[in-house]
Amino acid sequence: MSRPRRRLFIITGLSGAGRSQALKIFEDFGWVCVDNMPVDLLGKFGELVLDSPHYAHTALGLDIRGGDFRADLEAFAAVMRQRGVETRVLFLDASDDALVHRFSETRHRHPLGKNLLQSIRAERRYLADLKGLADKVIDTTSLALGELKEQVSMAIGVKRRGEMQISIVSFGYKYGLPRDADLVMDVRFIPNPFYAPGLRRKTGLDKPVAAYILKQPAAKPFLSGFAKMIEGLVPFYIREGKSYLTIAIGCTGGRHRSVFVTRHLAGVLRAHGYAAREYHRDVQH
């Protein structure tokens, strides 16, 4: 039985350059993230990465708060590579002006001392050799969150389309809108199968209801156009840094039209490589 692929990213760099944001991005991608681990624990942590299925894809944040970690990081990365773990060091950088601005905005104290600019420059000198050893350097000076996410996804080889988690929820307006919806589509313009003979007690998951809806003149053009619109919008949501998108589709009772459209849209998106899940909130009412 072949050993599963194990990957470790070590995230480091200048304080204020975006290490915490980068770790959150890794977390959105489904990786286990550990931040600011004492360097004395690296050996034990390495054993977890090697042996535990939970740590097969891990991102580890290290910075100067844990002490002098430069030599330990280099040695740790070398050992992990020798033992078959795909290990990369990601270094986050930013200009002095950008870092001063960020610390001033957040009012956080720099780990090295009270004089902010001197501390930034001292840390830059301290980490200069480590930056040279990094597998990838990302300058976050002018990056928006979505752009940082794009850089991180490129570094770890994530397929952006498959990384976005799309939830499609059917609901009934009589029971209220889903609170967490990003997009809402009202499909009450389609004639209601509730009033068609033999369909009242069925749902949009049943073939007779699907056949009834597809016979309506507006149904097929709507389904095609709606799916194309969503496919066109999702890349822009990804670009802005969203990892989750909830699309709510509503009809009167949430049992027929919205359920059918939800299932149809989820199927189209999955066929085009998106991680789309469907939920039918009110189908049992």
Task: Write a concise synopsis of the structure shown.
With 285 residues, the chain is α/β, with parallel strands linked by helices.
Overall outline: elongated
Order of helices and strands: EHEHEHEHHHEHHEEHHEHE
- Please name the CATH topology of the largest domain: Rossmann fold
CATH architecture annotation of the largest domain? 3-Layer(aba) Sandwich
Percentage of residues in DSSP E strands: 15-25%
How many domain modules? 2
Which ranges are low-confidence, i.e. pLDDT below 50, for 5 or more consecutive residues? Answer: none
Q: Distance N terminus to C terminus?
A: 48 Å
Q: Provide the CATH superfamily of the largest domain.
A: P-loop containing nucleotide triphosphate hydrolases
Output the structural class: alpha/beta
| Order of strands, widest sheet | 2-3-1-4-5
Total strand segments: 9
What level of helicity do the residues show?
A: 40-55%
Gyration radius (Cα, Å) is: 25 Å
CATH hierarchy, class of the largest domain? Alpha Beta
Q: State mean pLDDT (0 to 100 scale).
A: 89
Total DSSP helices: 11
Largest β-sheet summary: 5 strands, parallel
Please characterize this protein's 3D structure.
42% of the residues lie in helices and 19% in strands. The relative contact order is 0.14. It has a five-stranded parallel beta sheet with strand order 2-3-1-4-5, sandwiched between helices. It starts with 6 loop residues before the first strand and ends in a 5-residue tail after the last strand. It is of the alpha/beta class and 285 residues long. It has two domains: 7-158, Rossmann fold (3-Layer(aba) Sandwich); 162-280, no CATH class. The longest helix is centred in the C-terminal third of the chain and has 21 residues, at 219-239. It has eleven helices and nine strands.
